[in-house]
Design the sequence.
């Protein structure tokens, strides 16, 4: 069952990195850009570009780790897709992380 | 195998159709982002292909990256500061020199590379008097041979901004105007020289390009998931 723990750890790391970045980008920088119209500031423009770029590639890794843990947990297709899509909705990945972690811990407890 | 078990189940058929649909959507989205990427580059190139007054494209202090290679226009008068020759410049294999002439545009001195002459006695070296309208493109100054940029005979070895400013006693625009057309035209005139930097540099829309790739990756993930959930089912062994 060590494979399951490792897969959970990888998924949790990606869920937190992706989730925190998405939350910061959408709670702080989206309003700055579209609410307050701060588009021309040099440092902000760099943060917008780098932040969304980074989220794009981190989300790819999130999907890979999410597929891995969902497959090991024998989640249904619907559950798996819900976990994967959670990485694109602000704060949803924290709920996905909570749900997946609880499921894995229950499975590990049942088999030991 | 019994007749009832042969052929794919409804679940397999359904999930396969779903995978076809989802991966097709990902590919369409990727192609759309790809065409957006190209459209943005094209629009940026078109924006920098339109000629701009030279003092708007660059200043004495500096220039944006998009101004290198940029077509510009300039209205002003050649000043009577010393016209400079750059030694040992060929044109179509013929030996000769480049002619650098100061043009004053709204008080800013611009180094104009008027063209090429075959000899320092060429009649084309005569500097036109009075107001002129120039069309050309901006190019960077040369930075090699900086420590020996001017020869004892007064010729420049390189189109060195430092040496040109020293000779003219004034700061110059941070890019060189390479002359293509002059109005009124003079004859004889130095032969126009080709540009070393052809097109203006425009920022590449990296974010759209990345989204393009990511959509294709997601199309791949759809089939990874199909393979895992439909073909392999689950690797977790049943509890003994």
Sequence:
């Amino acid at each position: 069952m060590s494979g399951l723990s490792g897969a959970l750890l990888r998924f949790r790391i990606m869920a937190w990195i992706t989730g925190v970045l998405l939350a910061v980008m959408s709670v702080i920088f989206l309003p700055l850009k579209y609410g307050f119209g701060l588009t021309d500031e040099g440092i902000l423009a760099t943060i917008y570009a780098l932040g969304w770029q980074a989220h794009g590639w981190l989300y790819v890794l999130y999907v890979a780790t999410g597929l891995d843990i969902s497959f090991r947990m024998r989640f249904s297709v619907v559950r798996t897709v819900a976990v994967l899509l959670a990485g694109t909705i602000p704060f949803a990945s924290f709920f996905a992380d909570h749900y997946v972690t609880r499921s894995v811990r229950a499975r590990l407890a049942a088999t030991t | 195998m019994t007749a009832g078990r042969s052929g794919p189940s409804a679940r397999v058929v359904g999930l396969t159709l779903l995978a076809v649909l989802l991966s097709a959507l990902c590919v369409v989205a990727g192609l759309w982002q790809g065409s957006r990427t190209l459209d943005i580059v094209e629009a940026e190139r078109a924006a920098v292909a339109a000629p701009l007054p030279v003092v708007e494209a660059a200043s004495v202090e500096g220039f944006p990256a998009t101004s290198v290679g940029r077509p510009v226009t300039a209205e002003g008068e050649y000043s009577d500061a010393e016209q400079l020759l750059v030694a040992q410049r060929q044109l179509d294999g013929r030996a000769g020199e480049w002619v650098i002439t100061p043009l004053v545009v709204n008080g800013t001195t611009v180094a104009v590379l008027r063209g090429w002459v075959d000899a320092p006695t060429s009649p084309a070296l005569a500097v036109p008097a009075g107001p002129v309208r120039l069309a050309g493109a901006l190019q960077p100054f040369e930075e090699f041979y900086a420590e020996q940029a001017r020869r004892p005979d007064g010729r420049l070895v390189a189109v060195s901004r430092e040496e040109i400013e020293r000779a003219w006693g004034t700061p110059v625009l941070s890019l060189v105007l390479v002359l293509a057309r002059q109005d009124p035209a003079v004859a004889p005139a130095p032969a126009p020289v080709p540009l070393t930097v052809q097109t203006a540099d425009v920022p590449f829309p990296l974010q759209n390009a990345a989204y393009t790739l990511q959509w294709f990756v997601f199309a791949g993930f759809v089939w990874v998931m199909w393979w895992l959930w439909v073909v392999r089912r689950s690797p977790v062994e049943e509890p003994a």
